[in-house]
Amino acid sequence: MASVLESIKEKCIKGKRVEVMDEVKRALAEGIDAKQIMMEGLIPAMSVVGEKYSTGEYFLPQMMLGARAMSESLQMLKPFLAKGSYQKKGKALVGTVQGDFHDIGKNIVKIMLEGGGYEVVDLGVDVSPEAFVEAIKKESPQFVLMSALITLTMDSMRKTIQIMDAAGVRKQVRVGIGGAPVTQKFADEIGADFYGSDAYGCVEKCNQLLQ
Ligand code: B12
Q1: 149 C-alpha to center of ligand 1: Å?
Q2: What mean pLDDT comes out for the span 105-123?
Q3: Share of the chain above pLDDT 70, in %
Q4: Within the chain, which residue ranges are assigned CATH 3.40.50.280?
Q5: How far apart are CA 198 and CA 203, in angstroms?
Q6: How is domain 4-81 classified at the architecture level of CATH?
Q7: How remote is the CA of residue 46 from the centroid of ligand 1, in Å?
Q8: Residue of 12, 20, 102 best suited for mutating to test ligand 1, as the one with most atoms within 8 Å of CB
Q9: If DSSP codes are grouped into helix, strand and coil, which group holds residue 127?
Q10: What is the whole-number distance in angstroms between the Cα of residue 136 and the centre of ligand 1?
Q11: Superfamily for the 90-210 domain
């Protein structure tokens, strides 16, 4: 019989939202850690959905069903993932860059940071470079964290750093970037302070930089 984590993955790939949520509840009731449910059930499902879309087996509606099952399950896991320290260590702005509407990864980064004791201001998706700059002036964060899932929108990260520089706010903050197509090489190229391949790594990098 398939394990509950395999079942979550399979049902999420098929976009069966209600069934995925039932299985997530079952996993929690069995005492499986929320982080494990996310890392071994939901996130791998999104990779398979992406592969199926790339090969033409899935079209946009199927990709949307998978994403909805993932997002709603994430909401359910949020209280378990974010139950960390409540003493705020610092403030971070998070946002998906201009032209890009993918927000699942950005939302996980936000939840993990909150669980790690950070105050997070979520700018949402399709955030213009100017909106990042305005928010830095208004919120005075220590970190600006940008997410991109589309190769073409990675260039918005470069533009955002350039506009932060021109507005004289670049040195006030540490800039972290991530998202599936982003790499350390790209982070070096555009002058970001760090790259993170996952949300846990992001919290660790922020902690290191605060020291
Ligand atoms: C779900 C999904 C969608 C959903 C998005 C729902 C939502 N609310 O986000 C929907 C169906 C709406 C969608 C739409 C589109 N999508 Co889409 N989508 C995906 C899919 C399948 C999964 C993405 C995802 O959520 N992954 C799971 C999360 C958890 O992973 P993640 O985002 O990478 O985040 C993790 C890390 O990267 C990291 N991280 C993320 N951000 C940050 C930030 C920082 C600072 C740090 C440190 C770390 C970090 O931490 C996260 C957790 O550990 C991917 C395939 C894939 N393999 O990525 C395609 C994919 C990204 N989409 C793609 C495309 C083309 C599109 C569309 C243009 C399709 C269309 N024709 O309309 C539109 C985009 C419109 C737009 N302008 O944004 C392509 C992009 C191709 C490319 N390389 O440019 C992909 C790769 C599919 C494919 N194989 O072709 N999509």
Answers
A1: 4
A2: 90
A3: 97
A4: 90-210
A5: 9
A6: Orthogonal Bundle (1.10)
A7: 9
A8: 102
A9: strand
A10: 25
A11: Cobalamin-binding domain (3.40.50.280)
Name, in order, each residue with C-beta under 8 angstroms of 103's C-beta and a sequence gap of 6 or more.
Answer: 96, 124, 125, 147
Residues with CB under 6 A from ligand 1: 43, 46-47, 49-50, 53-54, 60, 63-64, 67, 71, 99-106, 108-109, 145-147, 149-152, 176-181, 196, 198-199, 202
> How many Å is the Cα radius of gyration of the chain?
18
% of the chain with per-residue pLDDT over 90: 78
Write down the residue that tokens 């600006």 correspond to.
Answer: 144
Atom 1 of ligand 1: nearest residue by CA position:
67
d(CA 21, CA 3): 15
Atom of ligand 1 nearest to the CA of 205: 47
Q: Are 149 and 95 in contact (CB under 8 A)?
A: no
Which residue's CA is the closest to the ligand 1 atom numbered 22?
A: 46
Question: What's the pLDDT tens digit per position in 38-68?
Answer: 889 998 998 899 899 889 999 999 988 998 9
Q: Which amino acid is at 125?
A: V
pTM over 0.85: yes
The values of phi and psi at residue 42, to 5°, are -75, -45
Name beta bridge partners: 54.
Answer: none
